[in-house]
């Protein structure tokens, strides 16, 4: 039966060779290589649950009066958008579970994209020839943040409405074109009735399409370039080692997809998220304490709270204080991030092909830089919740802000120093983080020559240098004659 | 040996006899290894080996093109230098499953059975009216059951396999590159010779770009002077959120109220915050002495930092604060910022008391309300009529 | 990290929290009633005399012998019973030591003693804000939620958990008795603005208090409400529980076997 179907397609598409190659595709085996899959599978469930939600959500800011089962809001006036989310939560069967799975999946997806990016950064996986995929990855990070923020704003509740208001002010703060940009993007002076419908189109059409296309390109490039490997003692740099896609890897990966969905379903059912009915409908003149965005915007919120009140006036024209922490710094950060492969290449002068990863210790300064940036973001996110934190710790918010203005600079500096020293020490100690499979162990044991050879090599330099040496020795044995160019990617 | 995978050479004896138990104390301890884990894996492999399964290593030449530089060594050489592979070699290591097949099949059965039961149960719960917590848990069991069934299946019912093979080149061969360049160069004269037409084409695309601006322009009205004015006018009656007029004595000292001009309740840019303080304590900037009758002082409620409502009033300190980023403004001194990221005072709304005791505005706010923008101090740029 | 620990603690301790507290407000409510009754029964001379003794012992150091205030403490004469009742019944006054900050703690004085002190201070200069009568059962939940979000949420947060406000802390509202909430609204203790009858009418007061009481155990159709601390705790759960669980699964899948 399957054979007949396959033949039917092959006679039309001639895909047998491609199918064979694909099924034989090798997927290196390391848990950290599956972080991207968490992001991908979260995105899939976001689409599935999101489609369900669109059947009930009404993107309309027209004012209606609520008469529904949630009594504390009975008789209050609110936008149709907010009312539709209340209806979805309280009246549509399974609506609340789907909404909560959707929101949890969004929080998890941004987290997965971020730690996936961190893994790629710390292991140098973005180096030639994978710069393109790094850039696409940064783009995906930005798109994920944007779609998350747009979705968070759709219910038109008090908390998210306040966030939108800030977003409008941020656009407004851009020098020269800010006012026009704000008016065009938001459909006029805030709050414009066009805003909710526009956010909706962004959230359910434009951004998901962009993300899907970018993920497609990201995966196609991965498919073409093949996955990287961590260095292993018996692995040549021009070889790939892992499991074939079919059947083991495919089964495990499909299983992983369902496991992720299961964990999200558990959260969606058991842990309440974003109870908009407590926040109340958005009114421009009402605001609530503890005005925090979702976690992935926390660092921006923190920047806004900590940044000193600097305003620049040039010939009567003004660059508002908001511009620096909300546009300039994030803009610079994402620009540097996107161009990182080229920046690093400038600094290291390393223009080789790399299919083997680095361990974080192999390039201590990069690891230290990454660690200090992570510390910076964590601290900023804490500052974004300074009102909640300060009252927990029992200090005044003003004292908290003053201290944190120093802490967000000093602590990442210390983190840089400590990480650098530790990484360098580990690298110089010669202890190698090379993993071994049980099969490798048995193989090694059955071959005494290998172990002797390894010891004769003496004083382990970096893992990769040793690999290079091994290949060079191999190449010399081959006595094949391409001298000027490195013959294999390292 | 175990699977027919084309011609291959058996190397190193192919079948690896494992005379020594992997946990043999003679094995020198490896410092890098997590001992506990090593013991566990060693034990499982040892058990499998004892059960009669074998770890098999097969090496063969890769099919198809390999890296050009990698002249495959002949079989003799490859055999002489294990475990390093020649660059064209493919190595397949297979071994026994770490878990006996029957036990793994049992786990999978349990997981799938749980999934089936949960799937039926979730339907029943739904039919009975639904309950979010139960639905979530059942859905989770359903999905986790399927998920772990797949994972167990993948891990334990297929023989573990580690394949090492050449990656192949990232770049195309020089011949292929040359071929592509040649193909592109073919008839290129048809483009390079037509300089004028190429320029025209570029110009036409420029025109297309210009034309694309117009739909963008439709997205919103011109800012015009809308950022510079609010509905407050001279004589506007001050009303609260419900639309009732506010008198000079509505607020007690220490009280606070959100107010709007009559007829514009809820208007974003008109929102103002009326605070009653002890009259004598006010130290308003020069010229504003009469603007706060009997200590009723009124400011724009839009924070000058990011535009949130400064809804948080500390009566003791006579400070207005914004709960978004915690800018603080001194109510007694014309709402100058005293802490936080804001740089600009809240614009004040000048008030007077009419003959019936109601508060009314003397005019619009002292400055454009809300956060800063490029031409805030310059006034509206004359370009374009406001829509 | 502290916040994280607190958040997690809150997440799992909410039921215990609610159960643990449910005893206390009841007792306090009783005390309130006693205070109000004693006060209503008339500030007779004996009560005033008893109050004077207590006042001189506990209050006069800072507020002066006739409540006119000193450099240690503000005048409290003429403020009225509501203010005094709120400060003493919530344990903020008398202070443990002069100069300390008034925070909520178990009341130092018994309801009868509080009534006596109030009688004495009121005797010095009658007037001010009387202890408000509040009947949450008469209020409307919907009107209450609207009033709450407009007037209270800016400082006490939408969930009633409170939070930092400048150099002060807006306290959480989950332990105050209905009378104490009403007293705070009417008198604006500490840095809080006050709302009198012209701003919040008696029926609005009932509604508002009813909603504040509702916030102690708000409808949580979505499951564990994590104390309604908002996106901070939600983000923590997503990253450190859900995502970590997934990473644990990757470790299980990825283990080479």
The low-pLDDT segments of chain B are 1-53, 63-82, 383-387
The biggest sheet of chain B amounts to: 4 strands, antiparallel
The largest sheet of chain B has its strands arranged as 1-2-3-4
Helix content of chain C: 55-70%
How would the global form of chain B be characterised? flat
| Unreliable spans of chain C | 1-31
Instruction: Give the biggest sheet of chain C.
Output: 2 strands, antiparallel
Output the structural class of chain B.
alpha+beta
> How confident is the prediction overall: mean pLDDT of chain C?
81
Compute the number of helices of chain B: 7
Give a nutshell description of this structure.
The complex is a heterotrimer of chains A (490), B (387) and C (257). Chain B has 387 residues and is of the alpha+beta class.
What are its keywords?
heterotrimer, A: 490 residues, mainly alpha, two-stranded antiparallel ribbon, 65% helix, globular, disordered C terminus, B: 387 residues, alpha+beta, four-stranded antiparallel β-sheet, 7 helices, 14 strands, flat, disordered N terminus
What does this molecule look like?
The complex is a heterotrimer of chains A (490), B (387) and C (257). With 490 residues, chain A is mainly alpha-helical. Chain A contains 20 helices and six strands. Chain A is globular, with a radius of gyration of 27 Å. Chain A starts with a helix and ends in a 12-residue tail after the last helix. Helices cover 29% and strands 16% of the residues of chain B. In chain C, strands 1-2 form a two-stranded antiparallel ribbon. With 257 residues, chain C is an all-alpha fold. The N terminus of chain C is likely disordered. Chain C is built from nine helices and two strands, in the order H-H-H-H-H-H-E-E-H-H-H. At the A-B interface, helix 5, helix 7, helix 8, strand 4 and helix 10 of A face helix 1, helix 4 and strand 4 of B. Strand 4 of chain A pairs antiparallel with strand 4 of chain B.
List the helices and strands and how they pair.
The complex is a heterotrimer of chains A (490), B (387) and C (257).
Chain A lengths: L1 H12 L2 H8 L2 E2 L7 H20 L8 E3 L11 E3 H11 L4 H28 L8 H23 L4 H15 L5 H9 L8 H31 L13 E6 H26 L5 H4 L18 H9 L5 E3 L2 E3 L3 H16 L1 H9 L15 H21 L1 H8 L3 H33 L8 H8 L2 H10 L5 H16 L12
Antiparallel strand pairs in A: 1-4, 2-3, 5-6
Helix pairs in contact in A: 3-5, 3-10, 5-6, 5-10, 6-9, 7-8, 12-15, 15-17
Chain B lengths: L8 E7 L19 H16 L5 E6 L13 H6 L8 E6 L6 H27 L4 H26 L3 E6 L7 H12 L3 H4 L2 H23 L20 E3 L15 E6 L10 E5 L19 E5 L11 E3 L4 E3 L6 E3 L5 E4 L11 E3 L5 E3 L26
Antiparallel strand pairs in B: 1-2, 2-3, 3-4, 5-6, 6-7, 7-8, 9-10, 10-11, 11-12, 13-14
Helix pairs in contact in B: 3-4
Chain C lengths: L1 H39 L4 H14 L1 H4 L17 H9 L21 H14 L16 H16 L6 E3 L2 E3 L7 H10 L14 H13 L16 H24 L3
Antiparallel strand pairs in C: 1-2
